Automatic annotation (TrEMBL):
GO terms for cellular component: nucleus. Its main location: nucleus. It comes from Tetrapyrgos nigripes. This is HAT C-terminal dimerisation domain-containing protein. It is found in: Nucleus. GO terms for molecular function: protein dimerization activity; zinc ion binding. Keywords: Metal-binding, Nucleus, Zinc, Zinc-finger. It holds the Pfam family Dimer_Tnp_hAT. Transmembrane segments: none annotated. Residues 54-132 form the HAT C-terminal dimerisation domain.
Length: 156
């Protein structure tokens, strides 16, 4: 049986580049052998070892003095991609980010009348924790493990 002839290439797509021509041919024939988006490094998921080491690398790094915290995180978003996203979530909460009514309606679930003694920092941390859990940035098992740890005294 004779090989199938290649489909004609439109004038505006004619090229001598073999890889580009082969990609066009595959697409025309309906055979998607190569996805060009697989080669984009920004879209590749991080490797499992990279995620586990991210927090360890951050905690072991030297403390740097900076006046621009958001700029610091932006400059290190490739080093700490997950922590970068979490840091932006936490640091970019403006005082008036939503309607007071909306905050109050969500807040009643977080701060019922029996728990109204929580500090503003604790409330903010719990709201971020909820959002990060919904986004899959942290796992429920990890939260439960941390919740079972003994209390740590912090001096102000």
């Amino acid at each position: 049986m004779a090989p199938r002839p290649e489909p004609p290439v439109p004038q505006h797509l004619q090229t001598t580049d073999k890889k580009r021509k082969a990609c066009f041919t595959c697409c025309v024939e309906g055979e998607f052998k190569h996805n060009r988006f697989d080669d984009l490094p920004a879209l590749k998921p991080p490797k499992a070892g990279e995620l586990g080491d991210e927090l360890d690398r951050y905690l072991s790094a030297d403390v740097e003095a900076t006046d621009d915290v958001l700029g610091w995180w932006y400059g290190r978003k490739k080093d700490f991609p997950t922590l970068y996203r979490m840091g932006l979530d936490y640091l970019t909460i403006p005082a008036t980010s939503t309607d007071v009514e909306r905050v109050s309606s969500r807040g009643r679930f977080l701060l019922p009348y029996v728990c109204n003694w929580l500090s503003a920092d604790t409330t903010r941390a719990l709201m971020c924790l909820r959002q990060w859990s919904l986004m899959g940035l942290i796992q429920d098992e990890d939260v439960m493990t941390v919740a079972k740890l003994p209390e740590i005294e912090v001096s102000d």
